[in-house]
């Protein structure tokens, strides 16, 4: 019996020690990003301990039950099964920790189910960002962690023989062992009080990265896996009716004078005339370019560096929305916000649920009902993140992806480079403008990918020789410039509306601490169909507002687009909402709040109003928005 208890204790402590040791490893790898002091390193270990104890408890339940079996059996098969279990557990822990270490630098949050979704929809695309040295470092790290855990087990718990000697079996021993195993309920639950283990246990600092360092990635992954459904119960801060009322007041209760934000627009002072007077035709050909990972920091017009002069020139020529925000952090979530006006849920992606997004109205489907044809151009795998199914259900009749390019053109890890994609899109637009379908209005969407990791592009800007990220953005910008110049030569240019915006928040500059700066992106309207030029719209808005705004410009109702609002409508409140895993941000002219609903903590706050230092309106609004969003998702 004593040996069984000793082995049980060794196994539990082994997991705890490994989890504790991995925190200094994380802090070492990301030392330049976290910037922690020695005292903060200790604080990370201490505040993450309860979560480590919890995960160790989960992993020790099966060994505990095996030990019960060993006390009942004289055979050695359970001991061998224990060895196999510990080897598998070591391998899984190693894989999770190494994936987490590799992804955190790009994603800025601990591991969740997102990479699993990406890998299962298209393994090739999911691995496109991975360089050879990532593989080497990952395999080496996994091997080191796995082998280290096995050695710890082999020379501690693995040395303890539990099976009882012949004739000495005691009935009470397995009962006691079962009760001891049952005590794991306490660390697994996290306490004996009402509160159970959750991500908030690890949060202790105003430095968000220190909080992330304290989180156990195994727990983070398990937490995410168990929060992929049951949306009617998630973020249940209040009843659905109350939440809907608060969201309505958030989005519409603060009228804004668009005339002040957009001087010189013809057509009078009413909201409708401001929108409808912006186009020379009510049914323009629309060319939408969705730029991979671009940010406001790449163009001087928004105070950034002159990395993308072509986009900056378009912004000065046409209409630039200066206070525009990305809905989320990855393309699948950004597409749903842009095309379906559906805000990105923090804990999942709409594109995971085919049965749900099929029921959503979308900007392309509304245009289809108005007689539009719709085409989508992308150089990568359209099956990645269920994109093909989403685009088809959204109303695109033509979808061009990697399989439509010659193998010789697929030189990027993501498929075809942007210059090839833009060239293919131009040929399609040209054929539509001059061929048999001439006169049929068309929506053409071009999605770029070259400015994504690993930022390897067939282009070398002498200004960015040592900065591959900037060079990749400059490359895509040069491709965009050639594309737009080509569009200007077409006979339908004067009836073309050009819409340019990023897919999600930018990946340059790296490691932006401010969520507000991270999500700040440009939205540019240009083209011959636009009746104004050189205008700046300073009103707060986000990607979900794009569809209703464009439809209002064409005089088309945005029926069914629950979260989309016409930016030019004077009754639309100046507000932007964005999310990331475990985060929601609400931005208003006088106050900004970023809230972690999983940790129940306000992690960033800034503003000019007195409320900025208190809880009330924005925190309530953030909670209401989450409840309303998940209630809507549950009803789809």
Q: How many structural domains can be distinguished in the coordinates?
A: 2
Strand content: 5-15%
Beta strand count: 13
Radius of gyration: 27 Å
Mean pLDDT: 87
Please report the distance between the alpha carbons of the first and last residues. 55 Å
**Helix amount:** 40-55%
**CATH class categorisation of the largest domain:** Alpha Beta
Tell the overall outline: elongated
The CATH superfamily name of the largest domain is: Alkaline Phosphatase, subunit A
Q: What structural class do the secondary elements suggest?
A: alpha/beta
CATH architecture of the largest domain: 3-Layer(aba) Sandwich
* CATH topology value of the largest domain: Alkaline Phosphatase, subunit A
Biggest beta sheet summary: 9 strands, mixed
Number of helices: 24
- This entry's quaternary arrangement is single chain
**Could you name the ranges where pLDDT drops below 50 across 5 or more consecutive residues?**
254-273, 608-615
Explain the layout of strands and helices.
Blueprint: H1 2-29, H2 31-34, H3 38-72, H4 77-107, H5 114-121, H6 123-126, H7 132-154, H8 172-182, H9 185-189, H10 208-214, H11 217-225, H12 240-252, H13 258-261, H14 271-276, E1 285-291, H15 309-317, E2 319-325, H16 331-340, H17 354-357, H18 363-369, E3 373-378, H19 387-394, E4 398-400, H20 418-434, E5 442-447, H21 468-487, E6 496-502, H22 515-519, E7 520-526, E8 535-537, E9 541-542, H23 546-553, E10 576-580, E11 583-587, E12 591-596, E13 601-607, H24 616-635
Parallel strand pairs: 1-5, 1-6, 2-8, 2-9, 3-4, 3-5
Antiparallel strand pairs: 2-7, 6-7, 10-11, 11-12, 12-13
């Amino acid at each position: 019996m004593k040996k069984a208890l000793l082995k049980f204790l060794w196994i539990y402590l082994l997991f705890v020690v490994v989890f504790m040791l991995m925190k200094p490893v994380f802090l070492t790898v990301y030392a330049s990003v976290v910037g922690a002091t020695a005292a903060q390193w200790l604080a990370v270990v201490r505040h993450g301990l309860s979560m480590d104890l919890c995960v160790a408890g989960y992993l020790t339940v099966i060994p505990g039950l095996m030990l019960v079996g060993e006390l009942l059996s004289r055979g050695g098969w359970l001991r061998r099964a224990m060895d196999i279990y510990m080897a598998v557990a070591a391998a899984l822990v190693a894989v999770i920790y190494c994936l987490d270490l590799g992804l955190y630098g790009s994603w800025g949050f601990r591991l969740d189910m997102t990479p699993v979704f990406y890998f299962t929809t298209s393994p090739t695309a999911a691995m496109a960002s991975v360089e050879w040295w990532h593989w080497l470092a990952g395999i080496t790290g996994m091997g080191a962690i796995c082998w280290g855990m096995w050695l710890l087990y082999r020379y501690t718990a693995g040395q303890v023989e539990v099976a009882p000697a012949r004739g000495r079996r005691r009935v009470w021993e397995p009962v006691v062992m079962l009760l001891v195993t049952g005590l794991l309920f306490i660390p697994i639950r996290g306490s004996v009080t009402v509160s159970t283990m959750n991500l908030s246990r690890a949060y202790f600092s105003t430095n968000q990265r220190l909080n992330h360092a304290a989180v156990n990635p195994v727990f983070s992954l398990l937490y995410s896996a168990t929060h992929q459904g049951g949306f009617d119960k998630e973020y249940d801060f209040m009843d659905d009716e109350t939440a809907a009322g608060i969201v309505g007041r958030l989005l519409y209760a603060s009228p804004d004078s668009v005339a002040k934000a957009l001087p010189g627009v013809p057509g009078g002072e009413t909201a409708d005339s401001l929108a409808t007077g912006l186009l020379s035709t009510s049914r323009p050909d629309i060319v939408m370019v969705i730029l991979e990972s671009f940010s406001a920091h790449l163009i001087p017009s928004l105070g950034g560096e002159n990395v993308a002069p072509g986009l900056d020139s378009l912004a000065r020529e046409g209409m630039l929305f200066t206070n525009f925000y990305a809905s989320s952090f990855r393309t699948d979530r950004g597409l749903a916000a842009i095309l379906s006006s559906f805000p990105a849920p923090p804990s999942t992606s709409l594109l995971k649920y085919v049965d749900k997004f099929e029921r959503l109205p979308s900007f392309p489907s509304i245009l289809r009902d108005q007689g539009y044809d719709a085409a989508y151009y992308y150089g990568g795998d359209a099956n990645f993140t269920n994109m093909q199914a989403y685009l088809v259900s959204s109303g695109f009749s033509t979808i061009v992806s990697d399989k439509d390019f010659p193998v010789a053109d697929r030189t990027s890890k993501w498929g075809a480079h942007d210059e090839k994609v833009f060239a293919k899109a131009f040929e399609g637009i040209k054929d539509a403008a001059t061929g048999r379908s001439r006169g049929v209005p068309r929506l053409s969407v071009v999605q770029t990918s070259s400015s994504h990791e690993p930022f390897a592009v067939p282009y070398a800007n002498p200004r960015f020789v040592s900065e591959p990220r900037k060079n990749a953005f400059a490359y895509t910008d040069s491709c965009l410039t050639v594309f737009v110049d080509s569009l200007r030569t077409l006979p339908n240019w004067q009836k073309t509306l050009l819409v340019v915006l990023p897919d999600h928040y930018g990946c340059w500059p790296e490691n932006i601490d401010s969520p507000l700066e991270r999500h700040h992106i440009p939205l540019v309207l240009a083209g011959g169909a636009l009746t104004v030029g050189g205008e700046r719209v300073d009103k707060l808005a986000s990607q979900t507002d794009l569809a209703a705004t464009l439809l209002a410009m064409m005089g088309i109702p945005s029926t069914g687009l629950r979260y989309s609002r016409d930016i030019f409508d004077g009754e639309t409140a100046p507000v932007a909402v964005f999310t990331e895993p475990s985060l929601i941000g609400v931005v208003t002219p006088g106050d900004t709040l970023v809230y972690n609903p999983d940790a129940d903590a306000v992690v960033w706050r800034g503003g000019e109003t007195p409320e900025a230092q208190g809880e009330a309106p924005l925190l309530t609004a953030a909670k209401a928005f989450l409840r309303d969003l998940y209630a809507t998702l549950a009803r789809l």
